Structure formats: structure tokens, C-alpha cells
């Protein structure tokens, strides 16, 4: 009887609260140790998961590829090497590694140059070419909102990614009523064309936006920024990261005394009739365990979508978004997760059409808790009050440090799914998905936090 009253109290708190009472909601909480259902509300209803979607992607990648998997980027060439001259082209073939040049780290390019020198190449009688044909040319997910395209959090996804596919656009603001000017980009991108409508106004916040499409050097700047602010930066996507990568490689080759006859370029369309190539060097990413840690702890969309797109290549080449969608659904269906009514449009949760139930996430999390890859999986999840996107959840409360979970946030939405380590040694698994609630996401989180503390209090 005490247990029943506690459940009613918990559900009542969410369904009658002014913020969450009329929201689109799916909740499921279960004691994974005993199998007891602690709480549930519309647990089979599918709702937009936002970044909690990354759990489906990272778990599938970890289970199918293993924690030690490393993304390969292969340097190869056509033609022959004679007397120090490569009579042919040098290719950099992408393998969907999202970490090349991450946070500006480009020391790996010097390793590539050394490998090219070791092969006896002193001159290239051809060009340096970025091969981005592992994926099809649909770099921008068509299910994402148009206004997201060109922003740093929604970059195009290629088989050659570089610098996080992101550039910092340095602007300079002036007098009220003037247009902010573009000073430079970091890294520098050749040939960018700006259609700039960023206004300088009497405001205190950054309201500038970037939009544009993959492969296009045209970028639109709109919105407003504070007047007389001096120089400052806004982030946008790199239109063609693979091309920028080989341009940087060619510059390093020139610095090392290796001349290249033609300008660096790229290919994006798969062609099985290309001339045969000889492998020269393979660069490997950090282990997948580290890739998914970055994906989940910092909710990295580029990393999640690279995993998502790579999974699609297991069906056919070139990899397509449709193949990735099918693989993710089929994989979890075979594992016994209730995805029959789920809508899977991407791997990161940015698509507003994505919809998954709380029960499906609980089933997935339960499976992963018994996986041989459990250690790497748990290590990839933020910790309440301590790390990543869960740092603001339950700090200085009895639940600080006890929750390992993924969060998801968009306007009017706050979602969580993960594990709670109870004082008696039991482990709970939960998913709380709250969408279309009035107010800001942080206010929804406050309600969820109180809910979690309430359930914890009545069951510890």
C-alpha cells in the first residue's frame, strides 16, 4: 500500500504541475535489479527524444563495432613513384572519422607528410584529392530544419570531417544601425562569399545567425549583435571540410619541400571505375570508446551523425541516410527494443520528426547494462551534478553522482534517460521524456529534478 501511494504521488507531481501537466510526456522507471516497475506514464507513447536519441546511435555503434574500433583515414595514390616523383594523384580517402582536426589539433598532418616522404615522394605530378565518396552527396539531413543548416550544431556530415566541420566567424560591430563587418574566419576558408545582414543594435545578447548549404561557399549572416562591441566570434559550419583538409595537407607538403603540380580538390560521388590506387598510409582515430564518450557527455551532434552515417555503410556503399535509418531501426528491433512505432530520422535527435518511447529507452539501457561493453557504455554517460550535460542536474542533493544518463534539450523540451545507483546496491533504469511544455527548458528540468528526488526519497 505504501508503494502504491508513492507511485500515485510521483505521477501526480508530473501530470498536475503547471509546467508539465499538459505536456506531451512518456515516463518509465524500473528497478533493473529486481524487475519491479517503479513508475510509468504513457510509457509506450513515442515523443521527440531530442539528444537522448544519441543513445540509440552510440549503443548500436558500440555493440556492432566494439570499443576498440578506430575510424581509418587512408592516404593512397594512383600511378607510379619514379626518381622521387609521383606520376599520379595523391588521395585522402575518408572513413567517417569525426575527430580529425578536432579543437584545432592538426599535428597528425605532419605524420602524414613524414609517411609521404618515407614513400620517396619529393614531387607530385598531379594533385592532392579529398575522396569523400564513402557517403553519398546528401551531407545535410533533409529532415533537419532549414534554419539549422549552416549552424555549428548542424554541420554537413562527410566521410572526411575536419575541424569539427566548424569555423569561427570573426565580426566587428559598429554604431547603432550599422551592419557588422566580417573580419576573418578561423580557420581561413578560401572563396567564402558573405550575404551579410547582421545589424548592430542596442542589445546585450548575441543574436546573429549563420545559414548555408554543404559544398556552397555562400553564407548568409542575419540577426543582430550589440553595437560598439568590437570584434567577436560566431560559429558556423565549414562548407567543405574535406577540401580544407587537403588544402592544409598540401600547404604542409610545400613547407616540407614537396611540390604539387595542381591545386587541391575533392571528389564526392562514388565511381567504381576509378583507376586502381596503392595504399601509402592509414591514420586511425582514437578508440570508439572515446568517440562515444565525447558524443554522449558533450552531446556532440557531429560525432553522433558520423556514427549514424557510418552504420549505414554496413548495408551498402556509398552510405545513405536512408540506410542508416533502416539499420538503426532493424538493429534494435532484433535486440528486442520496442521501436515498431518509433520514428528515426537521424542519429543525434536534431530532426523534429524523431519519436521514441520511454519504454524503448529503458529496454535499450537494460540491454546495455548486461553487455560485454558495459564498462565503456557507462563511462560514456554524463554524471549528475558532476560532468557534461548533467552537471546542472541534482547538484548538492542526495542524487548527485548517482545518475548516469543522457539529456536532451530543445525549446519546450527536456528529456533524460539513464541509470540511478541506489544506496542498497540496486540499479534503476529510467526515461523521462517531456515535450511541448510551456516555459524554458531549465524550468522543465527543475520539475524533473524534483520528481526524481521525490521518487528516490520514497523508494530508497
N- to C-terminal distance: 16 Å
Whole-number tally of structural domains: 3
Which bin fits the share of residues in helices?
A: 25-40%
Q: Walk across the major sheet and give the strand order.
A: 2-1-23-22-21
Tell me about this structure.
The protein has 460 residues and is of the alpha/beta class. It has three domains: 2-68 and 289-459, Beta-lactamase (3-Layer(aba) Sandwich), CATH 3.40.710.10; 72-137 and 241-286, 3-Layer(bba) Sandwich (D-tyrosyl-trna(Tyr) Deacylase, Chain: A), CATH 3.50.80; 146-237, no CATH class. 27% of the residues lie in helices and 26% in strands. Strands 2-1-23-22-21 form a five-stranded antiparallel beta sheet, with helices on both faces. A five-stranded mixed beta sheet has the order 18-9-7-4-19, with helices on one face. A four-stranded mixed beta sheet has the order 5-6-8-17, covered by helices on one side. Helix 2 (54-65) packs across helix 6 (301-312) and helix 6 crosses helix 7. The chain is globular. It starts with a helix and ends with a helix. Residues 1-8 have low confidence and may be disordered.
